[in-house]
Structures are given as C-alpha cells and as structure tokens.
Amino acid sequence: MLIDLLTHATAQAQQSGKLPPVTLPPVTIERPQNPEHGDYASSLPLKLARSAGINPLEIARELVSLIPPAAEIKSIVAAPPGFINFTLTDDWLAQQLESILKAEEAFGNIDLGHGSRVQVEFVSSNPTGPLHVAYGRAAVLGSTLSNVLAAAGFDVQREYYFNDAGNQMDIFGRSLYARYRQCLGDADAEVLSDGYHGHYMVDLAQAIINEQGERFLAIPESEAALQVGKLGAERLMAQIKGELDLLRIEFDGWFTEQSLYDNGQFDKVMEILRKGGHLVEKEGATWFTATALGEDKDEVVVRSNGVPTYLATDIAYHYNKFLEREFDRVIDIWGADHQGHVAGLRAAVGVLGVDLERLVLIVHQLVTVHRGDEVVRISTRSGDIIMLSDVIDEVGVDACRYFFLSRSANSQMDFDLELAKKEAPDNPVYYVQYAHARIASILRVAKERGITYADGDVSLLTSEPELTLIRKLLLLPEMVEVVVQTLEPHHLTYYAQDLATTFHSFYKLCRVISDDQALSKARLKLVEATKIVLARTLHLMGMTAPDRM
RNA sequence: GUCCCUGUAGCUCAGCAGGAUAGAGCGGCUGCCUUCUAAGCAGCGGGUCGCAGGUUCGAAUCCUGCCAGGGACGCCA
Hints:
This protein has 20 helices and 14 strands. The radius of gyration is 29 Å and the shape is globular. 50% of the residues lie in helices and 13% in strands. The two termini are 42 Å apart. Among the domains are: 2-88, Arginyl tRNA synthetase N-terminal domain (Gyrase A, domain 2), CATH 3.30.1360; 93-109 and 428-540, Isoleucyl-tRNA Synthetase, Domain 1, CATH 1.10.730; 167-246, no CATH class. Strand 10, helix 12 and strand 11 (359-364) form a beta-alpha-beta unit. The chain binds one RNA strand through helix 2, helix 6, strand 8, strand 9 and helix 16.
C-alpha cells in the first residue's frame, strides 16, 4: 500500500513538473531499526536525487506533500538526508489485536505459495549407523523450514532419502557379516579397514543372531553379507526414524535408492543422458561430461566394476522428483562436505530439461563436536560416534532444537558436549518459553477471578510499552515472509527472543490485572494475543509452549 | 593450485538484494521481589565490523587483492 502511495505521488510530481521525468528506481519500503524513524521508511528520494538533480530532502518534502492522508497513517515526514518516514496510528495498531485473537494460531500464515508443491529433502543419512549429533543441524533446519513454507501457503513434502544400495551398503554388509561371525565364535572373521567398526555393529549383529540364528553361516559369504546387510539396514532405518521422532522431526516420505532400480527410472535416466551425448566411456568407466557444460571436471557415473556412483542415482532421484512427481520446487539440504557435488548435480538436472530455478541446494557448514578442549572426530565408519539421541537425552529437545536453529547455515558451528550439558538450563529457549508461561499464569488468575474480557476495548492501549509490544506481534507474518525468501530459518530464533524481551519489559511496566477494569480487559486481550504469537513462533520452530515452568 | 563457507564486543553469534547513532545472548559490574511466575526487569562497561584498495551521495553490507580458519577437489557418500 505504501509503495502504491509513493509511486502515485512520484508520478504526480513528474506530471506537475516538480520532478523531472527520470526513470524511477524500484520503489522500496524498509523497516527502520530506530523506532523514532517510524514504522516504515523509504529512501526513494535519495535514489532519485542524482538523476533528478535535486536535493533529496526537497524531493522527500515534495513527495510527502503529495501523499493523501490515510486512516492507518499517523504521520508522514521527510527526514534528512532524504528519507520519508511513515508512522502508523495507535488505534490502527491496537485494532490489529482483534485479528490476532480471531486468527489464533493461524496468525502468521500468509499466502506466498498459492499451494505450489515444494519438496524439502533433508538428513538423508545412510542406514549404516545411528544418527550422530551433527545431523541434528540438518534435521532442525529442514523441519523448521518446512513448517514455515507450509505457513506461507506452500504444499510441502518432507522427504528422507535412504541410500540403501550401492557401494557403501556393500561394505556395510560385509562389515556386519564379519561381526556376525565373530559373535558366533569365528575368530578369523575380520572387519576390513575401510569397513564399519563401531560398537553398534556388534549389537546389531547380536540382534540379528537373536532373531535369525546361525543360518547365514551356511550360505556363501557374499550372499550372506548381502542378506545380513539388508537386515541390518532395515533395523538401522527403524532406529533412525526413532531418533528423528525424539527430536520431533516428521517426514512425509521415506524414499529408497533401491526403488530407482526397481522401477526402471535409473536406466531411463542413463538412457536420457546417453542419448543427449553426455556420457562417454573412458578407462572402463562411464563418465558424465560435465566439462562440456562448463563445469570443472567430469564425473564417473558407472564404475568400471559396473556399480553406479552416488551421483548417478542422485541424478535419477532428481529425475523422479521433477519429472515423475513433478514438484514445482525442490530444496535439498546438504552438509558442506557435499559441496563439491553441487555443480555436477545441477549440471545433470539441467540436462534433464529442468529449469534450475526450481532446484535449491542449501549447503550448511559443518558441526564440529568438542568435549571440553578436545575435538571429537566423528566418523560413522571408524565408529567414533556421538549419538544424537544421547545428546537429546541430556540436553532436552527444545534446547537442542533452539541451539541448532539459532545460527545461520553458512556459519560453522561448534557443539561442546560439556558446555551443552552445563548450559542447557541457560538456553535462550527457556527465556522465550518463560514469557509464554507467565502469560498463561496471568490468564489463569483472570479466570480464577472470573474476569471475562471478550468485550475489552483495545483502543485503551496507548502507552509506549503496549504499543511496542503490539508492533512486535505484528512482525510475525513478515518474519515468515523473510524466512521463505531467504530460506534462513535462524531468523525465527532472533524474533522469538526479541518478542519475549519486549513482553518481559511490558510485564514489568504494566500491571495487567488491576483495579482499572476496562484497562485490565484491554491488557488481557494484548496478553492473550502475545501468547498466541509466542506459541505460533515456538511451534514453527518445533518447540513446545509450556503453560507452567 | 582450484572451488565453496566464514572472519563484527572478552566468548558464541545476528545484521550483509548498500541507507539515518553497528545489535543480541552469555560473562563482568550496579540497582530492583507487600501485588499477575526474579527462569524476570532497569542500568553501566565493552567494537580501527580481518587488512588494503575500489565503486557510491552513502559500504559491516557490493567489487578486487592479501591474511587467517573450516570444508571440498576419489571409479567414498
């Protein structure tokens, strides 16, 4: 609306000759950081000053005089060096509480997606071991982003991709079979150096023995390794699902690599690449000629032993996402250790005829785990693993989620196990939740005293702490929009913190239930609206909003 | 050597489709509980935004170079 007003005023100024007929830069509105500068601001005059050859402050004054008064706007002022600042009326702000109360937890929903179908694929750890701590980051990032996209009107599908075929599973199967034989007393059985050495493999082997007995000793080794590996992978998939459950991470789909072979899509994709002239045979292997598309290097898709690489199935997987299931947009969340595969995959997906605007790869930097001063090297294969589920047990789900969410995906993250345990009680999430619990407490007291406030008059809310709080509440839909546009859900944690601070400050300054009945009712409305917004924000982040702490 | 990410307060990090005095949490120091939860509030102290150039009316934000840290450059994923 403000943009329209400004655009209109500028056009008028040009018509009347007050402003030369220069081409307009895009008219933008910002939210000033300093509240004294109003609710919204535009720097349009500064941008016009040069081409118009007029002092920006003069342009600002001219435009201000041309903008007609509107009911929602208290003031429009030109400010040096050439800003136009808009301030909303107190009454309009207060009235917005009614719409929050009416919308309840739907407040914050916006319609940016128009129901378009977007898939978010994340975690996708191989079923060769339990989830270690670092996967918590991708899990929380993906689930929060999905929640926000859903709030913004997208039809979201959350998916986990299991690499349950290929090379690594082969090694996994052989490692597990070796443990199986060891458990049954075969001292000669050995886990190969490139195999999986973790202690959980012994437990896994024992579980399979308990269920299946010794029968795999009777069949040929390679076949036995295959079958034992399959059983082990199934158990681990179930375990991984359980661990994700603990962190309250939900998926709509579990996609297996194997299915790409079973339904022929893998072969189909290879055929497309071959027909397009993107494959060559070299040194006994099949290569995808990414260099012909401007990339740095070619990539092997089928090894000389006939086994496809990870990239090959990933191309087929994306064929499935775009051409078979026809998602409008696909967001993959990868760790920085996969950064090198981005270019190759994008090139291949482009070859499939997919507009690359539709494919977004979010690459988050890695999490390094410390125990005090010591860096814990994490490797599923070597078996040095800190299980996500253990950390959740010790630190708590909400604190865990908040911690993983609170940093931008682009920043490296240190997870100190000692510190996490020690500081769990100081986690900012409790500060936010405490604000929610405090409100719940106020509402309980109101109820006990039989105070009803449906008829409260919000226009009585005119003091600075009240209006500041209302302004914060109204920011939620904008936050949702920001997260959708940037795909950076960490902004939510900062918003939550900011909102809680504003509430706590209000709480100190303004007694809600007092002798002034009318004001009490109005404030109860404000406080309930705050509770709604806090709860919504916490829920978007996958956290709980407790009524008591 | 090439590519990606990062360098902002003592520590951990926001801010970076350029904008008006650079923010928060933690830690340090002061105050504040007769009344709705002190897991709270108010205040103080703390910064050449890695360094050097450049673009611009305006740069923490954009460009180039350098320095430092992390990651990737496998017929592993």
